[in-house]
Amino acid sequence: MTTFAEGTFTPAPGRGSLVGMLRAQAGLETRLALRNAEQVLLTLLIPAVLLVVLALVNVLPTPEPRVSWVFASMLALAVMSSAFTSQAIALGFDRRYGALRRLGATAIPRWLLVCGRLTAVGVVVVIQVVLLALLALLLGWSPAGARLDGVVLAVLLGAAAFGALGILLGGTLRAEITLAVANLVWFLLLLAGGIVVPVAELPGPLSALAGWLPSGALAEALRAALGAGQFPPAGSLLVLAGWAVAAGLLAARTVRWR
Prior knowledge:
Number of domains: 1
Strand content: under 5%
Structural class: mainly alpha
Mean pLDDT: 84
Order of helices and strands: HHHHHHHHHH
Distance between the termini: 52 Å
Helix content: over 70%
């Protein structure tokens, strides 16, 4: 007969470790993101199709090698789609269906919820980078002259900036409004935010504005690293870092459970 020391099964009420909660929350958010077929279509298929079309068809005046320039633009679009649009919509409907209200009854603080979703964004972005890079290689892109360290830094800052903005939007507005606003912002940034058209080629006032937007900063940073083989400009990186910090802090304070 097995015996146990006294106190072996004594309950130990209290909150779990923050690292454990973050790991569990990030794992849950990642699985939910990858199971959402509609969001996977938005984040993976659209940038991939545009990469093929714009690399093979001379639709826009792009510098050579065209595939490097288009790859940088579509990588910025993919990061924006997964980190901002998908996160905002998913969080908005999680609030509508009461999922966040149930999380609010647990010991999970708001900042950990933000960090868990940002971690899930990072996983999805890694998958996007790998798939788009393989597709770009098939289209003739060569990583030989690229600044891969600059690419990694720009993608990390871009994911943090757009992820924080997505959580801020989805965590404060009603689900229906979030859906409309997120898609509208995605479309506007795609056309006039420095992703498809370089910041320098936009009309005067719009060019000045796009340089301060996270979309324009991310696209310019990736074009410098992938197209010109240069480390991203400090200004673009600072813009991304500023958006990430400001939106992240605001989201951690304002995200509502319902």
